[in-house]
């Protein structure tokens, strides 16, 4: 029971205990305040991006060990934190642009941007993963928007970000569209995933596109 509702109940009890008729306007105002509070949309948590550290291994396991998260990834879920620690050490820390998606500085996912080599350095691929408990809250979309801005500011010569999503992963496709990515088409038999060759949907975001 919130403070406004307590006040309303206390007022009604007081009135009837003293043989007073409750003021209908006061009851209406207090009940409206309680109604507004009940129907307020939950606030979207503040999302930040930062570099990983080795101490993030436990948080990393919250999504890296979850088969629901790794379903559309090449690798299988981790079962041993030591393997996750090795991955952070050998892959994430040396990576040119790999960030933790954080809420209150605690990682709940990861997002990476990998520039193409040589003459193709004007484009880069982007990938992201989010712990299952944080799906459907707009966090991945916000993280993508932050990454788009940072990537174009920090990576020289970058003109194009591209991302692929499995044809059977409409949730990831929607996230990319909400972040401003444009669907370009289906790449047939494009990725070998857990022993099966899969079709992928290609998305892109250009430097000239508005975030």
TrEMBL record:
It comes from the Eukaryota. InterPro entries: Acyl_CoA_acyltransferase, GNAT_dom. PROSITE patterns: GNAT (PS51186). One of its GO terms (molecular function) is acyltransferase activity, transferring groups other than amino-acyl groups. Residues 47-207 form the N-acetyltransferase domain. This is Acyl-CoA N-acyltransferases (NAT) superfamily protein. It comes from Rhynchospora pubera.
